[in-house]
Request: fold
Amino acid sequence: MPSPEGQKIAVVGAGIVGISSALYLQRAGFSVTLIDRQEPGHGASFGNAGALAPHAFVPVNSPSIPRRLLPLMFAAGSPLSINWSYAPRMLPWLMSFLAHCGEAEVGRIAGALHALLSRNLDYALPLLRASGADRMMRAGGYLHLYESEADYAACAAEIALYKRLAGDVEEIDAAEIRRLEPNLAPVFVRALHFGSALHYYGSPAGVCLRLAEHFCAGGGTLLRDDIRAIEARPDGRLRVAGTQDRVYDQVVLAAGAHSRRLTGGAMEKLPLETERGYHVVFGQDGDIITRTCSSATAGFAMTPMAEGLRCAGMVELAGLDKAPNPACHAYLERTARRFLPALAERPSSSWMGFRPSMPDALPVIGRSGRTPNLILAFGHHHVGMSSGCVTGAIVAAIAAGEPPPVDIAPYSPARF
Ligand SMILES: Cc1cc2nc3c(=O)[nH]c(=O)nc-3n(C[C@H](O)[C@H](O)[C@H](O)COP(=O)(O)OP(=O)(O)OC[C@H]3O[C@@H](n4cnc5c(N)ncnc54)[C@H](O)[C@@H]3O)c2cc1C
Reply:
């Protein structure tokens, strides 16, 4: 691989993964163009729950899912929602998802996610500090809450994983929950407290914008363009087609859930789907809790931010084109009020966005087998805000032909 100096590289997608990749490529000496059709940080990186959670290595895939799937699909007030007209198109992804729910497989996935998440802060902090975005982050930990002893017992396998892999977990009782977060309703009997988690207090999109400004201040080019295609040329370079054609030595594809749509034949066929997620913000209630709090069964997390209390999560299987489902916003509002009865007002804003999800809950990070100068970096599903920066460092190492900081075999595009 020739040296980075003089090499032109494009990063398509300015979410947390693309921006971090652009910054680490810039540090390695590449001439970098970051391209997005929106403002930086306005995809999934905009509306998430804003937890930077090194402990988020337990995948949604779980040995109990095959048993719980039907009740989750049909129960009123479930955090899982399916658009039935889209369901036939999701069937292959769902079948593959279920095939990755065995106990040994979940242990393997958790290990591979832990390898990524546990290194993320090593690569996030230098970017946050250099850009000044560290002032938009808050420490304080993360509370994962259980409403009954039965819920706690039902989650024994995931709790065992947390205790085995997370270095910062502490089990706490109802009295300690009340002491840490007195505004929570007394409905939680136990919690896991992860002491080293941070949250994006200044909003995840605010941090992304600050990082993108830092990239531009360092000489990077930020382009606003809707990319239609990425194609290999006979000379091995890549054509990136938007409102005009541009040619690069290498391209990083970090367009989140939309990544499959842009490559035509340049990329191998990969089972990328979207798990749509929702949020509501209570604008006057940003100080009602002090750290991210999630419920083990409600499927969402609540995070205090400068903009207010953000309640974000849920999974809706409905693809990229359907309109948002108002029932999901209603569920979030209703359940947040049950957990925090002192919430004063109607939500001040709401949002729906697209998690990029592979059926085995692992991202795709590596060179395309079909087009070697195309580097794939997408599929970070529920944990991209907690693993985007280390992914950026991995991408830069791949582009420069150097050993990546984490073994990337589990994230290989060739695994499907
Ligand atoms: C409700 C919810 C809650 C979440 N909570 C958390 C959390 O608390 N902690 C955590 O770690 N993770 C969380 N996540 C997951 C996290 O938000 C995602 O994994 C992460 O944002 C993915 O980042 P990305 O850069 O891969 O994709 P995105 O942020 O979606 O970025 C992709 C970019 O590509 C651009 N793009 C797409 N198509 C084109 C095109 N044709 N041309 C040009 N540009 C294009 C888009 O505009 C977008 O900016 C949550 C997600 C959701 C939905």
